[in-house]
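Because discrete structure vocabularies remain unfamiliar, it helps to consider an illustrative case, giving the amino acid sequence and backbone structure tokens:
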Amino acid sequence: MHAATHSRDLYTVEQVRTLDRRAIDELGITAFELMSRAAATALTCLCQRWPQARRIVVFCGPGNNGGDGYLLASFAQGAGMGVEVVELSEALHGDANGARATWQRSEGLSHRWHQDASLPKADVYVDALYGTGLNRAPDPSGAALIERINASGIPVLALDVPSGLNADTGNCPGAAIQAQCTVSFIAAKRGLYTGQAPTRVGGLQIDKLGLPDLLWQGMQADACLLESMHLPARARDAHKGDNGHVLAIGGDHGTAGAIRLCGEAALRCGAGLVSVATRGENLFALNSARPELMAHAVHGPQELQSLLERASVLAVGPGLGQGAWGHALWLTALDSGKPLVLDADGLNLLAHEPHRFAAPAVLTPHPGEAARLLATTTPDVQRDRFAAARELARRYGAVIVLKGSGSLIANPDGRIDVCTWGNPGMASGGMGDLLTGVIAALLAQGCTAWDAARMGVGLHARAGDMAARGGERGLLASDLLAPLRALGNGLGHD
């Protein structure tokens, strides 16, 4: 159902409202007709997803989302299904009044929601309570109904957006429907792909409601879905010097594993050479486990300097620490002006000593690190991940990877890509170290910071999905190394 013409484009709620108004004002399609198309599309989706469903309950709110629900109920009843409507409010507005009148003319069964009432039984529930206009927590009555629906165990089809989810940001300020499937109309809303949205949306289908492509003319998408990417095949006469030299800096006392994962990921993703600047105590373990890494004991900036001169790209932060040793190496690395990837304590040090990057740079914060970089709180970052990522890119002059469910890649020029791959099994130690090495390797092989970040995030997440085929729980960062190599060569199938 997702139209190929705009299959990667993501829009804000206001942009979708503009498209809606254009359809009405410029194409002469009435709002009621759009509502009817949405209801018919949603009923088709319901029948395809649950072909055995014979009885449905539609939960209708007071706005146009509720109007979609009333019309779906009418169409379903006309098709011979058993239908009941549960109304959140009697005070409807806009075209929802006309939609309810259509339902009432069919002599359909309606109930007003009361918190002490039990919910009707059904094969499928349809969520048409709140649409994209809700940017606050649902009121107590609506929240209680949402919680009851979620606790029912009955599968839910959400219309346009799961009620309670902010379609612009992916944040849930209060109770929110947990749908098994969401059918969204006209265009893909950016907030359905990041933050809390992936746990609420379920399977997502987008339908343009038959609107022509000319409706989108002159409208720039706010963001894009990340596409599958890998490097082209190498020339037959390639040598290691053609593929860059990554210097991974980190591994303070007790954190040899972090810098090893970073370095090995850089090797597996095609860097020609990978050196490691680390504590002397880590050399034996690194040389024994991965002799291809050129590990060097570095006690301070002077010993790091010669390694910096030979490197083309830096990977700074895994296991670095924030003590005197880590700070000195971090400062020396930044002063070198080399292209770099900055993660972990490299970001925490940056939060204390802000620096705007002139050379190509990729910063890979999780929400907590992003909050420190912006001098705000983690909940504030998560309330609007798009705004946070864009502000970080602007402030630091770097490409930003804001990690988490639906990772965002933000360019200083305002572009954002959203990664829809990855899984909860990747919420384990070492995954970020791996990503740092992946992106550094791509930078070393000639990618721009923007392309290295986009490709690196995609390869990392897709490798995580391949590795999780044996189960998400217990997934290790090192389990991604083999899939990373395959995907980086365009050989894997995720």
Remarks:
- The chain has a mean pLDDT of 94.
- Residues 313 and 342 are 11 Å apart (CA to CA).
- The two ends are 21 Å apart (CA to CA).
- The domain at 240-488 is CATH 3.40.1190.20 (UDP-N-acetylmuramoyl-L-alanine:D-glutamate ligase).
